[in-house]
Design goal:
Blueprint lengths: L9 E3 L8 H8 L8 E9 L4 E9 L2 E9 L2 E5 L11 E2 L13 E3 H14 L8 E3 L1
Parallel strand pairs: 1-2, 2-6
Antiparallel strand pairs: 2-3, 3-4, 4-5, 4-7, 5-8
């Protein structure tokens, strides 16, 4: 999935060769003073599993969700939003509501991105609980 300006909304991490730079550059290029955050999917699919880290960036905040088939959806143990957050959209402008308790500091999102892309496993920078 790409947007009209060719910004991907989905990153297949196997195409990144363990280098998180394209994803980190994309989120660092976002304006920090906007009313809407931007969310992407980072996925790693094999014959044995389907892993997806959903990330969002909204100013100094971010959002994380881990989907692991067939084991379900996981959220950060200390996410700060008590209700769903509608202030996120895909890079091409489609609404992308974040689950409750998924918002975390932006630096944690950047750490999770780096971990997932380099290890191809669930990031360990946060404690995950079932959604």
């Amino acid at each position: 999935m790409t947007t009209p300006d060719n910004t991907p909304g989905v990153f297949d991490i196997t195409t990144l060769d363990g280098d998180p730079t394209p994803v980190l550059d994309a989120i660092r290029a976002l304006p920090t003073n906007t009313t809407m955050g931007t969310a992407w999917w980072l996925h790693h699919i094999t014959d044995h599993h389907d892993h997806c880290l959903t990330i969002g960036i909204h100013g100094d905040q971010g959002a994380l969700t881990w989907d692991e088939e067939p084991h379900g959806t996981w959220i950060p143990e200390h996410g700060t939003n008590p209700t769903p957050n509608d202030n996120y959209q895909t890079p091409d402008g489609h609404p992308f509501t974040q689950l409750p308790c998924t918002e975390v500091p932006r630096h944690l999102v950047e750490t999770a991105i780096t971990e997932f892309i380099t290890t191809r496993t669930r990031p360990t920078c946060t404690t995950w609980i079932p959604a």
